[in-house]
Design brief:
This protein has helices at residues 2-28, 41-46, 63-79, 93-104, 130-143, 145-165; strands spanning 29-32, 35-38, 57-60, 82-87, 109-114. By secondary structure, the chain is an alpha/beta fold. It has two domains: 2-60; 63-165, no CATH class. This is Lipoprotein.
Amino acid sequence: MQRSILPLFILSLLFVMVSCGKSKEKDLVIKENDTIVVYNVMMYAKLGGYMDGNKKIFKIIDTACINADCRVQNEIKKYGYKYFLGVGLGTTECEIEYLKKAFLKKGIRTDVYGVSCLGTPPEDKFGYLCYEKAMNAAVEEKYGITFIDSMEKVRMHVHGICRTKY
């Protein structure tokens, strides 16, 4: 009796594992007539969305950027504002530390994100740095473009000082 139950158990376990794996992928792609609705960049790439000469019609719903806006509002309520500084190869630690102090005088925390000289993914498909851009826009809305411009001027000035200092 026990010998006959074991294969049945293994078979049912395999069935559950296989069926669960496929349903996850189905949720990421929906076909509407001849249009493929895609919700994330990985599935878009997997379906050949970035390939030249692709004849498929895609409708892109960028849930990451939609979620970023909600996340920004929640984090502002909980923790306050945060400004993201783009840093590249020429950015010095001295420059970042100086800007952190300048932003903190207004009660704004800072963080950094990497900027590549090679470019970024195409913006027309899926957003890039959605959370960072949304948070920076919220800071700009709250404190004004004049404040952000003044911080950029400070950054340029400090960049020169930090480069000659070290």
